[in-house]
Amino acid sequence: MTQRTKVAVLISGRGSNMEALVRAAQAADCPFEIALVLSNKPDAKGLEIAAQAGVEALCVDQKPFGKDREAHERAIDAALRERGIEVIALAGYMRILTPFLVDAWEGRMLNIHPSLLPKYPGLDTHARAIAAGEAEAGCTVHLVTAGVDEGPILGQARVPIRPGDDDHALGVRVLEQEHKLYAATLATFVRGL
User: Fold this and answer.
1) 118 cis-preceded (ω within 30 degrees of 0)
2) Is 113 a catalytic residue?
3) CATH tag, 5-192
4) Could you give the CA distance from residue 97 to residue 190 in angstroms, rounded to a whole number?
5) Residue-wise pLDDT tens digits, 158-170
6) Which residues lie across from 38 on neighbouring strands?
């Protein structure tokens, strides 16, 4: 089998998308391996989930760095490079990145966002889509660029908004699609490298 692309998944919490990527990487024909799960928060539940799945789980705690976000990202970058990581997948990583990390991994850092970008970047995407009277919501995998949720779109999945939906009900259905879309899009992306 050809060498699989080494992917690091960055998380801040439970990491359900990370878990879906780890599961996908277990398939014999998957072109990527999840070589590292890294969190900025030591109590992130996803670190435990990754370790149980046999994936290296590492915390580079943001707290000791105070307000110096770039110094924190330099420590993350060093950890990624030490492990030969080739691609980063952000999965619920709840920090806005500085130009340092964005530039260092330009064209090799992906993110998943719970809306049909370019609509509804940022937070509260489901509530905003419902309030606007949209017929559908969904999720987007995109390359990370300097602008928040503005990078080139690599893949999308659409989810109809049903009468009576609230942001929770819609969010559950969108998350199901995120788990499928991220793995499929990441596989397509790394095959093209």
Assistant:
1) yes
2) yes
3) 3.40.50.170
4) 22
5) 999 999 999 999 9
6) 10, 58
Q: Is 69 annotated as a binding residue?
A: yes
Residue 40, marked binder: no
Q: Could you identify the residue written with the tokens 């030591």?
A: 42
Give, in order, the Cα–Cα distances in Å from 159 to each of 75, 153, 176. 38, 17, 10
- pLDDT at position 15 is 94
The two three-digit tokens of residue 68, written as one number: 């110096």
Helix 167-191 crosses helix 16-25 at what angle (to 10 degrees)?
A: 40
The residue behind tokens 């530039």 is 103
> What token pair was written down for 169?
């009900």
Catalytic residue, chosen from 113, 126, 142, 179, is: 113
Domain ranges of the chain: 5-192
Please indicate if the annotation marks 96 as binding a ligand.
yes
- Coil, strand or helix at 121: coil
